[in-house]
């Protein structure tokens, strides 16, 4: 990669260092990190709503779809605004979104396991059950789940950042990483 010109070695070191710092900050201040994540979730919901509202004015999709898109957009903007006004609401929304993602993924894996054969069937069924259990945990014990989410995010940033720094310095040496 060093000779390929895809990116200079120092950019990987800089990104890795930044990732480690973000991870350390997330681990040192999990409550603040959760508030930032909640705020970002609120912003995302508002933007999603605005995009649906704008999408309602795209012609050729049928009046029913346009009206539905507009209504969903307005509801999302209102929910997002409520989340931004009250971060506790946003944290709850974040927990529900994460829970639903795990639950729906788990259900999809479990359904796919029905058509699979042998070890694949077993693996898909286990993944489905584990995902459903994680989703239910996020749904019914959001405080613990979100804390674990922040800790895992922080640890993930630290681990990947450290690896990026190592690889960046390896790319710096002639003959390595090519």
Automatic annotation (TrEMBL):
Which terms in the GO cellular component ontology are assigned?
A: plasma membrane
* Bilayer-spanning residue ranges: 7-30, 36-55, 67-84, 90-111, 123-141, 147-169
What are the record keywords, sorted? Membrane, Transmembrane, Transmembrane helix
Q: What is this protein called?
A: Acid-resistance membrane protein
- Native organism: Virgisporangium ochraceum
